[in-house]
Amino acid sequence: MNTNPTRFGQDGYCLFRDVLTSEEIGGIRTELDQAIANLPEKQVVYKDGEDREVDARPEYMTEPHPKNPYWLDLCRHPRVLDAVEAVLGPDLILIMSHLIVKPPEDGLPVAWHQDNTYWHSIDGTDVVTVWLAIDDADVSNGCMQVIPCTHEGYPAMEKVSTGKNDLLGLTVEVSEEMTKSSVALEMKAGSLSIHDSYVVHGSDANTSDRRRAAYTMRYANANTVTVDVDQHWVPVYLVRGNGGANADRYVDARPG
Question: Which CATH superfamily is domain 5-252 in?
């Protein structure tokens, strides 16, 4: 398991342990529990390649940061940004976020996929996803798994239907050899992983008696990635450093 950020470019992922304290995680869980309690009966989500109305589930809590300052502040947390800077550099924009909460015993799986191929408003490859563990995550409760090095050359793999009840309804074709090389990112709450937006990753269903909650935060290098804010579905926030050529189109949310 890669815990060395200098190998991020080679492996396509890196793990950072104990980024947030137990007290900070306790506060996040309190806020998360309130958000789950306030879920509507139905949600519109992107699934099976189109927008669909589905029964509300805590796996589908997308884009909380423009709606609630608490989650935006977490995306701007200095230790989180320090980890992102270690792999992307000092000029950072926040482009999306997603609370993915797998309840015990029936938490949905996430089939093998790439992130970037879902984001048609983004031009550039210096884009990453932070996966912050709100609960302890391991194989038994459906932790994330990555297939190292599958981001090489930034291939946009074709998406096909899973034909199953899972988070996305779509997947990419992965060979048995690739599956055998996958790495389970087991981590304690307060740790985080960062993966390249083209690396293939996914997770199994949570059939355990424990919840598995995570907050995914998506960042990009402000100098090498362009976001079409007219097509993008949420505001783009400048969270550290300089905003590059499109800085005037981003919301300045730099701490301080």
Answer: q2cbj1_9rhob like domain (2.60.120.620)
